[in-house]
Structure formats: C-alpha cells, structure tokens
Amino acid sequence: MLCRDDEMTHIDLKKLERKAFTSYHEDGIIDIFAGAWMLFFGIFSMCTDKPWFAGMFPVYGLPFFAAAKKKITVPRIGYVKFSQQRRSLMLIVYLWIAAIFTVFGIMFYTDNLPSWIYALMYDYPTLHFGIIVGLLFFVCAWATRIYRFYGYAVLVLTASVIGHVSGLQIRYQYFPIALGVLILSVGVLVLIQFIQTYPVEMGESGGDKKWKNQ
What we know:
By secondary structure, the chain is mainly alpha-helical. It has one domain (29-197). The two termini are 20 Å apart. The protein is built from eight helices and two strands. The protein is globular. Strands 1-2 form a two-stranded parallel ribbon.
C-alpha cells in the first residue's frame, strides 16, 4: 500500500504527464491541418464533380504534419510518448476512419454507392457534409483531448443545419471553405501563442525531453 507521500507524488506525476500530453497537442498544428483539409475539400468541390477525392488529403498531409511536429513542437516541450493503451486506441480509430473513407471512395469512384447515399449527397449536401465532418471533429476531440474540437464539431453541425433548414441560396461548397478558413485561422493564432509560451532555449533542442503518457 502506498503511503500518503507516495500517493501525492503519484498524483502529481500523473497531473504533470497529463499536462505535458495536453501541451503537446496545443500547438495549433492539428487545427491548421484540419482547416486546410476543409478548405481543400471546398475548393476541390468547386473544381471537380468528385469532391470526395479530397479525402486523400490527410494521407498525403501526414508527412507534413509529422515534420511540423518535429520542427516546432518537439524542440519546445519535448517528445510525448503515448502509453500502449492510447497508441492502440488511436491506431484503431485511425484505421476505422481510413477504412471508411477508402471504401466510400472506391464505391463512389466506381458508382456503386447505394441510392440513398446518393440522395443524401446530392439532395442534402450541406447537411451530409456537416454530419460527417462534425463526427470526425468529435472523434478527434475525444482521442486527442483537444476540447476546442468539440466546439468545431458543434460549429460545423450548427452551420450545416442552419444552412439546410433556412434554405439559403448559397453553394454548399462555400460552407467548408468558410469553416476551413475559420479553423485554419484559429490554428495559426494558437500556434503563435504556443511559440510565444514555449520559446526555444538557446542551446536546447528539446530532443532530450521525453514525457510518457499513461
């Protein structure tokens, strides 16, 4: 049995580890990544009749995301090592999302989607977009503990529902473009604040810092 001092030390370490883990994702890079994807989706929708190919953006963007983390985040707060449980959980979530996008992309490309999905996509594009992207933001918030992503989810769902119910005569592509610009802008502001809060010390690369998330 742990004595009181040991328990307090254990609790303090858990808080410290949790803070380090949260700070690791508070650099705004994932916001910029998400906003750029939505912006890319909106622009791609206006330029082609197969907008769902924009779903490949996260796949091709991952190397840039990892490079930004290594260049900006790690030198400032070090490297956060995920626990085995969280790594497995995030891997499962990522594989499920990737599998869903891949299957739907193949079915859409080969014109094998069920008729009711086509009806949703072409009759209610704004609502359809809001539900899918809102759920993605919700899952991202749950997996990364970035609580502002819950706000993004609510914002996307609310905007899509209002646009659908009010019958605004606005091209649905403008919704992801506007939301993408907004989220990307928030990400840039968060990144600037992160850089100011965690300046790189002279002669310190940050590579030796390592936090283990339990």
